[in-house]
Design brief:
The complex is a heterodimer of chains A (296) and B (286). With 296 residues, chain A is an all-alpha fold. Chain A has one domain: ABC transporter involved in vitamin B12 uptake, BtuC (Orthogonal Bundle), CATH 1.10.3470. Chain A has 12 helices and no strands. In chain A, helix 1 runs parallel beside helix 7, helix 2 packs antiparallel against helix 10 and helix 10 packs parallel to helix 12. The longest helix of chain A is centred in the N-terminal third of the chain and has 29 residues. Chain B is an all-alpha fold. In chain B, 76% of the residues lie in helices and 0% in strands. Chain B contains 12 helices and no strands. Chain B is globular and about 55 Å long. The N and C termini of chain B lie far apart (47 Å). Classes of the chains: A mainly alpha (296), B mainly alpha (286).
Chain lengths: 296, 286
């Protein structure tokens, strides 16, 4: 089979679908000035992921994802509880909790059968886009060989877009006019919890494939790329994804194939390359916006 | 059960780690007071591209890429650059401190991941050890590396003591500090330099991913217990030294436990232990 279809396409699909899932929820997090919460969740899910494996005794995706989601949500609630009790700043209480969760996950991975989970701590940081490939079973179609991670990300991206469509009004009220939201919504807490749960789910589905560092870039960058141009929340999301997706694809292809152009065998870390390109594009997008404003 | 390094080596490693923990706790007190906790996270992660670049440049020049001072200088340079980029990024339209922190962290650590993938294909074979910098490994540290760690930590602690009063005034009330003619911006820069010295010193033992925990958690635990800033800083230094020492011992005993993770868990346990004694908890009881 064509190497592009077998190796590059599944990784590209995973990266683009993770961009849609994380970027859609990240749009709200960026508006709420909470994008670093996503970084905390992306680290805090690790012990849950490993515990899910240890408890279920198998590499069952369901148990691992459930454990990860529980750990991610628990870490955010715990850090809110610490903040309420101790008057520490948000960053500090988040920092205390997510480093502890992540450290616990690293210790569990190293001591409790990391080999079987075939997940090592640096995979957790840098992702494993390089290891995704389509293994077509004999006589089967290409689709039959697509790895489970890609299907999971497809479902997550669809769910994230549905979440946005369903709750956009409530979330916008909360982000722009919290007082009005409290009066109109009755229970803004429920909407905030829903956003937290959806964010955790998107991060859990993404981070095994793309790694914690790229999760943060995918949460923050689409919205920040579109922010200087957009006039509405929906516009910011649409423009953010429209700018990010081609950048993500280009960065992946550059990481995978540019080194061979220069005559070396090794590919560059794809997740890192995508993060660098997305982050570098943000100030560039702001510069473009300034030029447009000056001329307009 | 025996420690992999025995006698004088173990004592040197323990002392070096305790010194690093004390520095991290003391510097963390001021970092928390200035509400810059996540800048510490940025600084820690942002050492990675500098370390990898320094390794590649040194090897290309025919030097040993693992030399601690070379890695320190590289790590410090990119950590400083990342921390310095946060304020101008935060001033971009609709970005703010939260977005700027996310950009700096993801951009620099992403660049580090790319450079690390180049380091790993480097033919010298010395790069095996660079990966241990992610989570720290006190068992593999050499006496020379402990010496370099101690020198950086001593210098940073001395600078902190010299600047203590001025930093305390800025931390307490920067508007007041400005009216009394203190150079607030220079002092903030000094604090960032102290933070960078701390993460660089802790790189080999605590690792660059979790070094932030030694900056934030002991200082947060100490703040729970209240008191004047000087008291909080001294107590944070003690808690930091204790957490770092406990972590080193745990990781030397349990071979496969990365030192940074053990130190982080020790600090978190001390933080948990401090919660029942926190000022607000006591106020509720009274």
């Amino acid at each position: 089979m064509n190497a592009f279809l077998a190796i590059d396409l599944p990784a590209l699909l995973a990266a683009v679908l993770a961009t849609i899932a994380c970027g859609t929820l990240g749009n709200w997090l960026v508006l709420r000035k909470e994008s670093m919460t996503a970084d905390a969740i992306a680290h805090a899910v690790l012990p849950g992921l490993v515990a899910g494996y240890l408890v279920s005794g198998s590499r069952s995706m369901g148990a691992m994802l459930a454990g990860a989601a529980i750990a991610g949500i628990a870490s955010v609630l715990l850090s809110a509880a610490i903040r309420a009790r101790t008057r520490l700043e948000a960053g500090a209480s988040l920092g205390v909790v997510f480093t502890a969760f992540f450290a616990l996950g690293v210790v569990l991975l190293e001591t409790q059968g990391a080999r079987q989970i075939d997940l090592d701590p640096s995979c957790v940081l840098f992702g494993s886009l390089e290891t995704l490939f389509v293994a077509v079973p004999e006589g089967g179609s290409w689709f039959a060989g697509v790895p489970g991670e890609v299907w999971l990300l497809l479902a997550t991206a669809a769910a994230a877009l549905a979440f946005h469509a369903l709750l956009a009004k409530e979330l916008a009220a909360l982000a722009f006019d919290p007082l009005h939201a409290r009066l109109a919504l009755g229970s803004p807490r429920a909407v905030e919890r829903a956003l937290l749960a959806a964010t955790s789910a998107a991060i859990v589905a993404s981070f095994a494939a793309v790694g914690s560092i790229l999760v943060l870039a995918l949460v923050a960058c689409p919205a920040l790329l579109a922010a200087p141009h957009a006039r509405s929340v929906g516009g910011q999301l649409a423009l953010g994804l429209a700018i990010s997706i081609p950048l993500v694809a280009a960065a992946y292809l550059a990481a995978a194939h540019a080194p061979s152009v220069f005559g070396t065998q090794t590919a560059l870390n794809a997740a890192g390359m995508i993060a660098v390109v997305l982050v570098a594009a943000v100030p560039a997008s702001h510069a473009v916006a300034r030029v447009i404003r000056r001329q307009g | 059960m025996t420690l992999p390094t025995t006698g004088i080596n173990t004592i040197a490693v323990l002392a070096g780690c305790a010194l690093f923990g004390a520095l991290a706790g003391a510097v963390g007190t001021f970092v928390l007071a200035r509400r810059r906790a996540l800048v510490a996270d940025v600084a820690g992660h942002a050492t990675l591209p500098g370390v990898a670049l320094a390794f590649l440049v040194a090897e290309a020049l025919g030097l040993d890429g693992r030399t601690p001072w070379i890695l320190f200088l590289g790590g410090a340079a990119t950590a400083l650059l990342a921390a310095a980029l946060v304020p101008p990024l935060a001033r971009l339209r609709r970005v703010g401190p939260d977005g700027a922190t996310a950009l700096a962290l993801a951009g620099f650590f992403g660049l580090g991941a790319v450079l690390l993938s180049i380091v790993q294909s480097h033919p010298s074979g010395a790069q095996g050890g660079l990966r241990t910098l992610l989570f720290g490994n006190a068992a593999a540290i050499t006496l020379g590396e402990v010496g370099a760690l101690a020198a950086v930590a001593f210098a940073a602690l001395a600078a902190l003591l010299l600047l203590f009063k001025a930093l305390a005034i800025v931390a307490f009330d920067d508007d007041f500090a400005r009216t009394t003619g203190l150079p607030v911006r220079a002092l903030d820069l000094a604090l960032v330099l102290l933070l960078v010295a701390t993460v660089v010193a802790g790189m080999q033992v605590a690792g660059i991913v979790l070094v932030v925990a030694l900056v934030i958690t002991p200082a947060a635990a100490s703040r729970l217990l209240g008191g004047r800033l000087s008291t909080v800083a001294r107590r944070a230094a003690l808690i930091g030294a204790l957490a770092a020492s406990l972590g080193v011992v745990a990781s030397l005993l349990g071979e496969r436990i990365p030192t940074g993770a053990a130190m982080t868990l020790a600090a978190a346990a001390l933080f948990l232990a401090a919660i029942p004694f926190s000022r607000s908890a006591r106020a509720e009881a009274a």
